[in-house]
C-alpha cells in the first residue's frame, strides 16, 4: 500500500515570527510600515483640522505641538525609510541579483524586530506623554521639555537607527558578494543600484544622529552641557550632527524611490531605459554630494553668511544628477508604446509631475538670500511635502502596485487602482500647493494660531488632506482585498526582464530552482506581455 507523506503544517509563529526568509521579512516591513502610515496620516489630519480656523478651537497649542511632532517623526523614521529600504529592498534585492537570500538572514530578521520595537516605543509616548519639540528636537527646548516624550523619541531613534545600520551592512555584502554569474555592476537593475548607494549612506550617516540624540539625553538627565549655551555648550553643534544625518536621510528616502521609477517606466513604455549608465552613476553622485549640503538647513541658525556660501553651491550642484534622472525618464517615455497602467500613472504623472515642483522650490531655498526670508514659513512645508509625499510616497504607491502580482500571485483591482491614483494626485496638489502662497505671504510654520488672512488657503489644504486620507484607505482596501480575492496573475504579467520576474509569482522559498546566468542588460527589448492591450488581466 502506497503511503503519501505530507509535510507537517508550520505554525504562524514559526512561519513568520521566527522566519529568516528575506521575502517574508520584506512583507512584514511593508505591512508594519503601512500600519504606521495610517497612524502618521491620522496625526496629519488632526494637524490640518486644527488649522481650519485661525484661533485654534480644536486642540490646545501644546497638543498641536505633540501632533505635528508625532506626524513627522512617524513618517520619516517609521514609514518612508523602512518601507523603501526594509520592504522593497529586502524583498527585491536578492531576487534582482539572482541570490537565494540576504547574506546574513538572522541579522536581517533582527533588523526588522528592532524597527518594530522602535516604532512601538515611539507610539507608546501617546500613553505616557508625546514628544513636543518637532521631529528635529532642537535644544534648548528639547532639554527643558517635561515628561518622557523626548526620552521615548530618543530611544526609538536608537532602535530604528540600529536597525538601519544592520540592514545597510547586509545590503552592501549581499550586493557585492552574492550576484548571479554574469551580473556585473553595469548590468545591475537600477533599483539595486539605488539600494547599494542608499546602504552606504545609511552606514556612514546614522552614527551622527546616534551621537546627537545620545548627548541630548545626557543633557536632559545627567547634567552634561553639550548644548547648554549658558554653561559653555553649543546648541548649533546638535544641529550640525542632526543634519549631517538628516539631509543625507532625504536622499535615503528618495534614492530607492528613484530606483522604483527606473524599474516601472521602461516596462510600461515598452522601451529600454534611456541612459542606463547616467541614471546609475547619478545615484552615486547624489550619494556623495548628499554629505556636503547639510548646513543649508542652518542658514538662519546664526552661522556666518560666508560659511553658508559653500553649502549653497553644493546644494545647487546636487540638483544636476537629479535632473539627469528626470530627463532620462522622460526620454524613455518619449516615443514609447506607453501603457497607462496604475504603476505608470503613479510613476510618471504622480511622481515626476509633483517632484519637479518640489525640485524647483528646493533650488530657490538653497540660495542663502531667499532662504533667510522663507526658512521658517510654510514655503518650506510645501517643499518638503512635494519631495517626500509627491516624491517618495508616489513612488511607494507605484512600487506597491507594480510588484503586487509578484508578492501575492494575484492582480489588484484596476478600477480602484486608478481611482486611488487620481485621488492621490489631486489631493497632493490641493493640500500642498497652497502652502507656497501662505509661505510667501509670511505665515510661519509650526504655529497652531495664525492671522485670519491665511484661513482660506489653510481650509483648502485641509480639504486636500482629507482627500489624501480617503485615497490611502482605498489603496489599503484594494491591496488587502485583492491579495485574497484578486484574479490570479501570470508569473510575469508586465513582460518585465529583470530577474525577479523570471521566477514564479510568488517566488518559491529558495527563489530560483537554478541560479540564473546573466548575459545581457535587464532593460529591453521587451516582448509583448500577457494581456495586451491593457496589460493587466484585472
Task: Describe the protein in words.
The chain is mainly alpha-helical and 538 residues long. It has a single domain, classed as Cytochrome c oxidase-like, subunit I domain (Cytochrome C Oxidase, Chain A), CATH 1.20.210. The protein is 66% helix and 0% strand. It is built from 17 helices and no strands. Helix 3 runs parallel beside helix 6 and helix 13 runs parallel beside helix 16. The longest helix is centred in the N-terminal third of the chain and has 36 residues.
What labels describe this entry?
single chain, about 550 residues, mainly alpha, Cytochrome C Oxidase, Chain A, 17 helices, about 65% helix, globular, disordered N terminus, disordered C terminus
